[in-house]
Amino acid sequence: MKILESVRGMAFLGTFAQARLFSAACAERTAGVLLRYLADEGRPEDQDSCVAALELLWDIAPPDGSAAAAMHRRLSVLPELDPELRPDGAVAAAALGLRALFSGVAMLIDQGPDGAVAPSESARALARALDGGGGATAAEEDVIQDRDVERIMSWSPEEQALHVHGLRASAAEAGRARLAAARKRYGLGGGAPDGTGPHRIAVTATADRGDVAAAEQRARYGVVGRITAGSDAGRYLRVDRSADLAASPEERAGAAGVDILVAADPAMTRECVGEWVEDWAGVEEALRREGRQVEWGTAP
Q1: For the whole prediction, is pTM greater than 0.70?
Q2: What is the DSSP string of the chain?
Q3: Could you report the per-residue pLDDT of 29-59, keeping only the tens digit for each?
């Protein structure tokens, strides 16, 4: 299979941390089909294993080799990885998602950037399978992978922690589209399974999504505020929409959610940490969770 030149470049020139983020995004886009298939098959324990594997990939902390090896063993016994299996339809689509996870976890053991190639190939193979001969999904997957490589390779190690939430949000959005296509093509079950990635956003804004529009009316995007009470009191907070930070129309189209930034200075340059949420209702939920009160527009 021909490897995208951008992925080949990452495999030879990138770092392990960069390749890990890229592989996590590939696995995120394929995980929805895999988890839905496992839910339809009544295999909650295997679902849990796959969700845990995906979380291992997205964790930006240095990998624990023994934990990665144990996860690799857990995945290796799933029947969809049997080399004698010649699956088709939904089973084949699920197997591609599992292979993306399996190869991604293997990369956590070897810790080499060339491990990004196999998750890339699995994500592209799933896109082709869902196309039904049209080619649009496969072309979109190529564009996404090229874009992700370019973005990830441009981030400094310090910036990776700030951008990981937005990268995952974009991958999750594409994952939902892959799941919808698989449901239509293969008749996978109706509701999305419990889990992560395309099925459950990291911070659910509100139980009643009718409150979202009201919350947006209170939004203070791009405004720096000072945290006066609660977690990180005395520090500064700013909320940015991912779409506002995109460098091109294509990136804006794929951007989703918002980033909550907390830093030691109002310019957000010192000790800055970020958290991704879905919308301003998610911001308010996060503030309540941390007990934070913010005076907006008071930063010097």
Answers
A1: no
A2: -PPPHHHHHHHHHS-HHHHHHHHHHHHHHHHHHHHHHHHHTT-HHHHHHHHHHHHHHH--SPP-HHHHHHHHHHHHTSGGG-TT----HHHHHHHHHHHHHHHHHHHHHH--GGGGHHHHHHHHHHHHHHHTT--HHHHHHHHHHHHHHHHHHHS-HHHHHHHHHHHHHHHHHHHHHHHHHHHHHH---SSPPSSSGGGS-SS---SSGGGHHHHHHT--TT--EEEEESTTTTSEEEEEEHHHH-SSHHHHHH--SEEEEEESSTTS-SS-EEEEESSHHHHHHHHHHHT-EEEET---
A3: 999 999 999 988 899 899 989 988 998 999 8
